[in-house]
Structures
1.
Amino acid sequence: MQVRLDGVVKRFKAVEAMAGVTLTITEGEFFTLLGPSGCGKTTTLRVIAGFYDPDVGGVFFGDVPMNGIPPADRGIGIVFQNYALWPHMTVFDNIAYGLRIKKVPAANIRPQVAAVLKQVGLEGLQDRTPGQLSGGQQQRVAVARALVLNPRVLLLDEPLSNLDAKVRARLRSEIRRLQQDLHITTIYVTHDQEEALVLSDRIAVMDNGRVLQIGTPVDLYERPATLFVADFIGTNNLIPGTIAEIGEGMASLTTRAGVLRGVVVGSLERGARAVAAIRPENLVLDDSAAGADVVLRGRVVIAQYLGSLVRYEVEAGEGVSLQVDVSDPKRHRRFTPGQEVAVRFHAASAQVFAAGAIA
Amino acid sequence: MTPPAVAAAQPVVLRRLRVPGMVWALPIYLFLLVFIVFPLYRLFADAVTTADGVFTLDHLIDFANDPFYRSALVNSLIVSGGTVVGCIVIGFTAAFLLVRYDFPGRETFSYLTMLPIIMPPLVGIMGLVFVLGRAGTINVILMDYFGLQKPINFIYGWHGVLLAMTMHYFPLITLNLVDGLSKLDASLEEAAEAMGARGLRKIRDIVMPLVTPGFVSGATLVFILAFADFATPLVVGLQNLVASQAYLNIVQYVDQRLFKMGVVIGALMAMMAIVFLLIAQRIVGLREYAVLSYRSVERKPLRGVSRFLAPAFFVVVLVVAFLPYLGVTLAAFGKAWSLTPFPTRFTLSHLDTVLHLTPLYVINTLRWSALAALFILVVGVPLGWILARSNLPGKGAMDAIVTLVLALPGTAIGIAYIRAFHFPILGFVLSRLWVIMPLVLAVRRMPYTVRATFASMLAMHKSMEESAASVGASGLRIFKDITAPQIWRGVLAGMLFSLMFVMQEAAATILIFLPGWETMTIGIFTYYTSGTIGQAAALGLVLILLCAATLYAAYRLTGARMGGLFGSGGG
């Protein structure tokens, strides 16, 4: 089922939680709404679910307008952040409830519940109450309950945020596998960019009620469209400065760390204030800098050995601190705090944005 | 590297005297034993022994074989059950509207709904008689202006008792449910909506089961209070109820057999209160879920007809609930009010009588209340602290006693005190000393303060005290600097509630007072039964104003939520 939002505005008193959101989520896609708290992602999910009606604009499932249609008639399944399992019902009753409301014959309920329980790997726990389950198990019951009515769209609102790291990683893969098996259009809300990158076919990054960029994980990581996205997705070294020279999609930037070059994103002109963004893994320390066309001087402040990589903090100019990740430490020369180093990178791996508020 | 400092600190810690908690708590244990456990023991023991102290079941068998008492028991159960049903219908509707919807006057109604509680039951039924009685305002209007031949019987009999009790007790249900409903997480209901459960189906399947604890707590309390109320039925002419019989049998003092039967009924009422309480706690225990609310349900504005139906509901309920206030006020200022809808002339003489000429009742009530408040402060607050923070032996028993006292009928406590303290203990016959009045009042109403203290302590995380202890503050110092500043509001609010119910108390005190000790409620009863209506009403009005002032102070202190104080289960 294709889901489309067309210029949706949703206000709560003075606050504009959605300030004109337009999205198209294609059939069978795993689509994530990503952003910091208060960015409007949950509101967007709830507008799709039908708990809120848009003040302006429309929601469409396929070509059918959904405005004014109650959640139960939209063919959605929803998993809430706190699971919202009914504590006074057993696992079985929680899942069967929707079937009973839909007046499914009693004889058909049992096999259907059993089938979804099998899908989420909870066979045998159907007579427990939610209070007797672990957090991870509760989460799976919530997913099973959302799936039992064979929804056209599955909505998940930060479903993993209340779990510890290990369980979270395991359930993350399970959700993705389930989604691919069922080939169900899935809309996922999270503030965790790593979760979004791992799970999604496409991601919409939101801030202040607006969609800043929609793209695949690779798009967002490698070609962020705004400074906010560059900062929010992954780690980036952000170095402010002034445009010294600009032309053919590249710009030179005068900063406290020296003169940098990078790819221009958006429109910029000479003398404008700008910010260069360079990923830690694109920076190279000293010797092995073949082909690098930008060189900065700096001093190592901290060196952290993380096994698969060494993470350096390098002070390059007054107030400019760079994170440098050198992977495969065995093959590289190691530096210790206090050492003077050269920091090199390819101009093509750096991006230059117009200066603006980051968060 | 300063080892000397560490070494110096060590002996300081060791030198601090360690008195076991049990020693500190000893007076509390003793108080509970002497003034609650012992009287109850005497009450139950008396019910199953002869005058010579021999065990017998004869009294119980007498009770069971007497068709009059059997029917009284059935009647009492019907009255209490009916009151609970009435209170649930009105109380749930009110709570659901107040929590879930927005409509004109919602805030005002939510305040006003509390108010019937401040009406002492005795004053309430009296005020109702002034307005709805045979010669009350409504009947006089109907007969004078609408040609009605005979007065309509609005209140004499079953329906009157049910009306008066429902209107008086429904706020207890509302308070408990407002509390429960506002704690429900919105997503629990949204999950049901997403599956197509709407309206009443959603309320039945999801909302009702989840507010069951608050529901059962409130309903149990209403049941027990209605079961124990003897004054309301007597005023409207119903005598064959258990509570009324207990009262009548005890106060006649002449017929030993009847007196003994009064004791037996008192013991039975206490027993039944305990049984109801246990059943309620079992239900609440099974149904209590730790549901954390992430997001409360948004209030929906009502539109169309219902926008006016909701306020109309409250107006009707509150008008009926406030009729007694009208009646009492009119009677308090009316001069020779009879056979007219409203008094034709007004006077201050009734107020002058009760405040100036015979101030005994008011003075006694203030005196006993102040002393009772002192007892409650000294015993109830530490008790709340012990329940919340300590691991003293017998903590569970203390908790049970506090909850039990909340449920015990005043009549039963009064009878128990008569039986327990009517002989010398250490040379004193307590029942002949005036101090028994504030004592029985304190014991009966202490649970509100204990619960408020307990709740305030729980709301404050223990780590706050522990971090003070970690920098070396002593126990008392921690209490003064950390604990007290954070809990005093809650504790004081609880004490004001205790105080309000102390002033309203009629059941226990009316059984144990000696001439000269009369409280305002006893004064009202005396005036009313002797036909001096004006004075009874004036005294009632003063009592209402005192209670209102107390409740207002408590309300200001706590903000709003006080549902937990009235529950009989949990906590």
2.
Amino acid sequence: MNYVIIGNGVASIGAIEGIRRLDQKGKIVVIGAEDTAAYGRPLISYLLAGKIGPERLALRGDDYYVKNNVELKLGATVTAIDTAKKTVTTDKGESLHYDRLLIATGGVPFIPPIPGVQGEDIYSFTTLAHANTLIELSGRIKRAVVIGGGLIGLKAAESLHDRGVSVTIVELAPRILSAGFDEKAGRLASNRLKNVGIEVNCGVTAKEIQRGKNGRVKGVLLTDGRFLECDVVVVAIGVVPASALAKDAGIKVERGIMVDARLMTNAKDVYAAGDVAQAMDQLTGEHRVVPIWPNAYNQGYASGRNMAGAKLPYQGGLPMNSISFYGLPTISVGVVNPPEGDTNFEVHALLDEARETYRKLVFRDEKLVGYVLVGDIDKAGMYTAFIKFEMPLGGEAKDKLINAGPEVFLWPAELFNETWNPAPANAAR
Amino acid sequence: MKRVYPNKDFCIGCHICELACITAHSQSKDLILAYTVERGQSGLSPCKHVHEAGPTCVALSCRHCDEPACVAACISGALQKDPESGRTTYDRDKCVGCWSCLMACPYGAIARHPLEAKIVKCDLCHDRPGGPACVAACPNQALKQEER
């Protein structure tokens, strides 16, 4: 069996590990556009902040690819997929045959059509190369504007600030972290950033990036008329699936590459996983692009197993983010902003501004479907359990969860026993 | 692989497993020093925790899952599945303290280190002759390590 994996991020690592659970012999070829072995992409903010060195970036040990019998083709881009002939062609002119193909090309930064956005001094923050460029620049620049108050923008801002650059964040939404957090959690995070000297502007965005006669960036004109002088602009609005390759090959693409319950695309033996895939979401049952790290690994793993013949369904994605802002930890999982006025949802929120702690629980049909924790995050996993295993929380159990926090004795007895003290026949999971 | 299975019907909530755990993971390997000195100075804390609800109690720690959610969530590669031993391994030097594993593990088996941006998780006492210290110390056989 010949496996070809396009992309060398965490979905690719998941796929290798999924394949090797079932097939130790088949040949695996990984084609990566970047020129390094798979690295912890979120670690680039730690690298830019100077918290870790480049030696800590690799996701797996030096011998990983050799041990797993994986051939790495790095610095190579796949230019075409022929699903009829089952071949892929690279920009190096190489043609490779596959029996099973995984498209794990990830996402590319979305650059909005702001006047002045094309040209020098505009940066993204999604790759190691971006981080290295910003590290090199940080010694020479004084001021940066970060467009976008999502996770990537905030981490770019924090890391540049750590390098001595004066940073201003602009966010179009009325609050930062609007996707995965609610207003109160966003405010706690935003206060932490403001307290260290990072300027946070919400409800505004860049109207125009103004340049001098030499073409270099002078500053950003905002929608409210203010002008922010700066040397560089980091655009961190989000990422979009890198799906052009699939589309050109006639594979079905909506927002991302559409995959079935086993993560196969509409082309036979071609799978997709990670930020490029539009896969099933556990809580909504809908197909969505949710570009987060654990989903990418899990989809990679599930597709890997299925490419090796497992025929097992993907369990479905669960949105989750864990991120700290200057020592303030925050975690959000599942549905955290239910549609306003939807009476199917029940929200319990508890804010302690002095202690900088916040807990929000979201229930639907007597089940926990989402939560946010800020500050005190120690019981996060125990909350996740109630969402992931969709445990019913009738009567007293829900009150206990709200008032006393999650506890393993609130689990249904059968799940408890199967999990912790299973009969020998059921133990393997 | 051999995992540690807790039995709530036998657990008497004595916390001796937690003490055995910190002793096994201490520098001194001495219970009194581990508890009185190392706990405060280096933040030594147990990988195992006794959960109690009324008269029921049980001592829980990492299950070394077959397909661990923590490994999927780990952004640094600190948590990995060792295909040979079956253990879910933790490389402290690689960990950046992002708490993704703590969020993803539905068994609540990962704790923050009290002093450093690191986690505390069961390693099955893999380098301890005689196996997990908690199992050896349990006075009522509420913890068993076996192949199931």
